[in-house]
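Quick one, probably user error.
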């Protein structure tokens, strides 16, 4: 039955998904994943309070694993509280902060708070942590460069473009990101 609820949610039928998921939650009252999925269905059905209630129950049931905490942060951010979302993820331990999903949600929160500099810093730290994985370092470096450009921090932007170029010099995304950065700089209000 859970699979039916998930399928309805993917089919963008949140009201119907919620009905099915509420039935599943009655049977599997101690299942954090069911509660987290119910939170997504509630949010999709324009019930932010229901989404917050369900995700808090998921966190309680789960004991606070990083995947559930990322889902909680996402719900908080999408229901209008990006500050609480960011704060909750900043409280995670070092190993959890090294997870891509955590970084992506932190970046989304910082951007909602209009802090591209902090968002860039998250990608920069992720690139440092993942330096043994060239593909990940490259992608994170490009994101750090792009967000530093948005923040108007051109020296940092250039440093991260250089790191990306040193990591995977022949990757076509390098030139594409350079072009995007040129556009970002040209469109900045202070220029």
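Nope, works fine. Designed sequence:
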């Amino acid at each position: 039955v859970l699979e039916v609820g998930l399928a309805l949610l993917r089919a963008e039928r949140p009201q119907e998904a919620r009905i099915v998921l509420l039935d599943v939650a009655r049977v599997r009252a101690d299942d954090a994943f069911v509660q987290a999925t119910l939170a997504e269905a509630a949010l999709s059905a324009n019930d932010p309070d229901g989404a917050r209630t369900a995700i808090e129950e998921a966190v309680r049931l789960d004991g606070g694993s990083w995947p559930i905490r990322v889902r909680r942060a996402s719900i908080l951010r999408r229901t209008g509280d990006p500050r609480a979302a960011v704060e909750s993820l900043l409280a995670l331990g070092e190993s959890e902060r090294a997870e891509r999903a955590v970084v992506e949600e932190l970046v989304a929160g910082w951007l909602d708070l209009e802090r591209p500099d902090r968002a860039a810093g998250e990608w920069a730290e992720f690139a440092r942590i993942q330096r043994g994985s060239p593909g990940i370092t490259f992608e994170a470096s490009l994101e750090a460069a792009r967000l530093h450009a948005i923040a108007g921090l051109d020296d940092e932007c250039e440093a991260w473009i250089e790191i990306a170029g040193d990591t995977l010099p022949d990757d076509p995304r390098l030139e594409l990101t350079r072009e995007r950065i040129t556009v970002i700089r040209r469109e900045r209000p202070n220029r």
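The chain has twelve helices and no strands.
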